[in-house]
Amino acid sequence: xxxxxxxxxxxxxGPLPELRIVLLxxxxxxxxxxxxxxLGRAAFDPNLRTLQCVKRQGEVAGRQVxxxxxxxxxxxDLYHQNDSSNFIKxxxxxxxxxxxxxxxxxxxxxxxxxxxKGEEREATLNxxxxxxxxxxxxxxxxxxxETPTEEEILVGDGNIESLVERCDKRYHVLDIKNKDDLQVxxxxxxxxxxxxxxxxxxxxxxxxxILENEKKRMSANKRAEQRKGQKQKNRTWSRSWSMKGFKxxxxxxxxxxxxxxxxxxxxxxTILGKEEFQPxxxxxxCVKRQGEVAGTKVTLVExxxxxxxxxxxxxxxxxxxxxxxxxxxxxxxxxCILIVIRAGAxxxxxxxxxxxxxxSLLGEGVWSHTIVLFTHGDWLVDTSxxxxxxxxxxxxxxxxxxxxxxxxLNNYSKDQVQVSELLKKIVxxxxxxxxxxxxxxxxxxxxxxxxxxxxxxxxxxxxxKVKSRYQGLSSGLKQLPSMGMVxxxxxxxxxxxxxxTILGxxxxxxxRTAECMRRQGDVAGRQVxxxxVPGWWRNxxxxxxxxxxxxxxxxxxxxxxxxxxxxxxxLCVDLCFTExxxxxxxxxxxxxxxxxxxHAMMLFTNGDWLGxxxxxxxxxxxxxxxxWLVERCGNRYHIFDNEHxxxxxxxxELLKKIxxxxxxxxxxxxxxxxxxxxxxxxxRNHACKRVEDFMVKVNKQDQMxxxxxxxxxxxxxxSQR
Length: 721
Hints:
Blueprint: E1 18-25, H1 31-39, E2 54-60, E3 63-69, H2 86-94, E4 105-111, H3 118-128, E5 139-145, H4 151-154, H5 158-166, E6 171-175, H6 182-197, H7 207-243, E7 251-258, H8 264-272, E8 287-293, E9 296-302, H9 317-326, E10 336-342, H10 349-359, E11 370-375, H11 385-391, H12 393-401, E12 406-408, H13 417-431, H14 442-474, E13 482-489, H15 495-503, E14 517-523, E15 526-532, H16 547-556, E16 566-572, H17 579-589, E17 600-605, H18 607-610, H19 615-621, H20 624-632, E18 637-639, H21 649-664, H22 674-720
Parallel strand pairs: 1-3, 1-4, 4-5, 5-6, 7-9, 7-10, 10-11, 11-12, 13-15, 13-16, 16-17, 17-18
Antiparallel strand pairs: 2-3, 8-9, 14-15
């Protein structure tokens, strides 16, 4: 890994004549500004988005400095390393070739405004490990700051502290508003210390790894050229068909299908040339917009998005039904189905499966009328879409299913040529089919339409029933001075976010924990205590659920004495709800006994996804299993939008509903027997002691192992002299 030709800092502490640096980080980390501050000039273009590495050089404080900026990864997909495209991964590995024979340091860049969650920490480490297992020895965390802040504040987050610890506590704060050269001088000296710690050596990626990535890149580039040629050949054939008597109507109708965050709304606006759709504003129903583009009437229907890695059966019934109905909003059926995907992002087997299942809800014959529409074309710059496609095996499979039909949109560009080209491709696709339009299954459409109308009628009746009930009970109701509540539910359904929304600030850390967390605050004139209980895994039945989760559920109610006013069962509204979900929720709730239902309320999260659709429609659309659970909670429920804290009315309404529930229970909280509470605490303390004893034992073994490794390395070093 090391190169003995590397220059070592002099014994007197003199600077190295040359320093080579690689910048690694999220797209929002502002690596470009970091590079410019280091080089002391506007060497990197802050407006340039690219999937390729960019190299710049300059003389800084008597040193020849080379900085390589690598392409960043996105916030949208932090849960798996695979969520960065293979092209980006290859670029990160090949970045070391731009600063031969290898970088002296890899700077892990973090902007002060970033929400650095556990997933982001893991994403950072996963991308760093692409360079090899020993890259951490040459790494330093570089904080980017734009406001006057003490360094300690930037290292106050547990996830950031963990990353700094992995880098042997090496970090630096760079104020990009400060033109003082001293901060850069100190950074370069810290990099030289890294070189000293590595015996004067730079970091070198194994030649085998580089050769493998070069070979993959060359092969992908060759296939990309072949794909371009085949695409042009197919379009020439389609055009010849359209010239042979095919007459296209003066209207184009299309459906936009894609997962959440793929860019459907922005694409719709780009095509229509005006702001008709509202990017970022989610909806549980289809949205139809129309306009005239280059003399052609264009009708676009945007269907609700789904989670990119979820099977269609995991999507809510509303999403599946709306996808089916999307085609009927085009009046005479659509000419084309536009499958919207982010360019430059990974496309895994799970995403391919999810896309295939959701699109196929329109019928298997739909694929002859599909075009893959890539968004975020601005990130491609000097990288062709074919290069990206050829690096993603499962994306290639999807493109082939669509008969090699695809198009790229840059939604930040006002250039209408890209839109005209897309409309031409839709003309060509209809020319190549036996019928101009996608033939809808009218019987199925009618069945789904009838289902939706009946569902909406039931939802309205439920809403009116609940309104009437609260109007009757809330009059003359006294506000409680204090209130305690417990949050229960499945993992990843928004319990912690709900707790922060209730308290109006980030009091709960967004990290996984095996223990109950209690936080308090003053909310709407009430002293509120919220207890967040570790969630259970979806699709793992109660008998297989970890004992510590059951124990924490029991213990949770003792953390807000004399007992909680409410036990809130948290459920995300954009997923399906099955009989298995109902049974698992029921069994975990009843750990607290059958009386818990008198104090239970459903708290639905992800309310922003519903848009203007009332939550009652979700309850009615998911069928008997969810309705049973809602009724078991006394038909008490509330909906939260955890994304918008500014709307305090949703929290106030929840507190009022809890006060109504307390009144219904004769002013009583969920009673906790004192002896039972003491037994629970003793049981929990005993379990914690066992865990502590185990960790002490593990730490001792770890220290012994490190001592053994250290002595072995020392002996090996002596033998090499």
